[in-house]
Design a protein that fits this description.
The chain has 20 helices and no strands. It is mainly alpha-helical.
Amino acid sequence: MFARLVQPAATMVLARLLLPSDYGVVAAALAVTTAIDLVRDMGMGSALVQRREWDDDVAATAFWVSFGFGALAWFVLALLAGWIAATFDEPRVAPVLVVLGGVSLASSLGMVPQVLLTRRLDFRRLFLCSFAATLANPVVAIPLAYGGAEEWALVAGMVAAQLSSLATLLWLVRWWPRRVWNGAAARAMLPFGSKVCAESLMGWGVGAADVLLMARFLPLDLVGGYRMAQFIALWPSNNLTQPVSRVVFSAASRLQDDVERIGMGFRKAIRCGAIGVLPVGALISVSAPEFVPAFLGPRWADAVPMVRILAVAGMFFSLVGLVPPVYRGLGRVGIMPRFMAVRLLVSVPALYVASTHGALPVCWTVLGLVALFAPINLFICSRVLSLPYRAIVADMRAGLLGAVVAGLAYGLFQHYVGGVVSRPAPRFLGGALVACGACLLFLKVAYPEGLREAVALLRA
């Protein structure tokens, strides 16, 4: 829990030291370099996790495939960095692109050790790696931001996080690539890995199109405000759903032939994810007018309506994030690329039009796209797992009702008590405590089994 609170606390400090435009520069660069991460991996990590038997020679071959694609991608990025920065009309983006791309290439050393820990379900050591990154980022970024380093404070924090996580991973696993090449293994893994990579690149296109188009048409301070709103809105997903998705992928990979058990596990993940994520997302949405000025400062006032809209989108985006690990574990990696291709064809034109009209139209468009595609995604997954679609919807009922209770409790507190308190921080904290208490009481009375199940999964 301490690790999950460090990043939000550090973000609050940095938000008061830096300008939204500083975040906009880094957001534009990250939207590009995330694609470099995906090309660098080339799906080799997922291919190794999905293999039934472990082979050190195959692992070394997967590393060299990943490293080769990563080196090529970084070289192309370095050549195009100036042109990309000119497209955004912001020269500060170019050197940030080169630095973040280089760090991504160095991180390829951690691909195989991370796979080993994932196959062993050794999430304690994986947590130690992420904890090292979580601590290193603010330790480096905050002093630099205080000293006036602007966007480079954020870049240096991310570099420190990546390198500290890599060092911890290599220290825990003690794996180093050997000069071994197994051509047959490479040819066997590339079809699976390329499909995973295609799925990830499609997902990147869907997820990064908003930032890329906003950086092209809107001022970077609005891009920075949008990126901050995304961070706040997706905090439940990043801290609650993503750890569960790693468990789902590992479990599905081990139970490839037992679709019934995978389906039962998926329904449990949906139930627990809904109870853990939906009420928190609702609270973030309704509390944005108090939370943002209290903890980020007045310069982020433009982000308030963005947080309110994106938090609703993030609630359902979090649950849909549990679907791709199921397909990968089953070896059905061709489903998501096709789905993402359709979504990309719809999303890019819609976001293009929205980005020419401002940041809020982009937020509403994102919410509309999630509302359109999330039910379709869950329906496809229900067919693959031979599950009744109504059962999956019913599994979300407790979380949805808990979200309504949390939102109503917070609103009632602000209506009757909030007017007495002038400062936004006490108003937010009081309302949040009331909302959390009301939601927990409701779940304990109406859905005690679901609440116990969610708590047990979060503790694990």
